[in-house]
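User: Metal-dependent phosphohydrolase. Structure?
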Amino acid sequence: MTCAHDDQLVRRWVELAGEPAARFGRELISRYREPHRRYHTAEHLARMLDFVDFLEAGAESSGPVPRTPSIAVRYAVWFHDAVYQVDGPGSSGPGNEERSARLAGEVLRAMGLPGALAVEVSRLVRCTAEHRVHTTDHDGAVLCDADLAILGSGDRAYRRYAEQIRQEYRAVPEPQFRAGRAAVLRSLLGRIAIYNTARARALLESKARVNIAAELERLTTRA
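Assistant: Predicted structure:
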């Protein structure tokens, strides 16, 4: 978490949004640096941007649906976890994805970007609440796969990710956390496919299922 790393992120933002919008990028990065975060950090943001680049590099250029991720996907990566709070039991109101989507719309309009782009970015951010998209929604598929790419990582990286998620939910009692986390993992395993794009499925699907099953076993058998 160095200043140099933040400078790299600012450069990536400026490449996307232009130098006049640099302050908005810095404000977003500061959100990902909030001290209560452990996984949903600027490092997660950087990894997602890299994964979108990876998917774009292997994108097909033919077909009725454009296969190259649009500019809206890249903006959506920046905003998808811009608001991240772990709410306590019984909390009500909009969730993090909804609040992040609303922030995206506000900021993009303040930047003077077209309203249609702001609407699309907000829609994409909302997709990360469930990570389920229509088969024709290529941009949504790319965003969701980038967000879930960590699930298909190596053993050590996955264990670190799981530990970081627990740290973010450190205020939640252990039995309650285990039950909630296990439900999320079972839902993922119950899907026909965790990933939406062919390239992510080929690279990550099998390993993700192994990782998730192992974490689920740890959660449900730990004394």
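Residues 60-66 have pLDDT under 50 and may be disordered. The longest helix spans residues 198-221.
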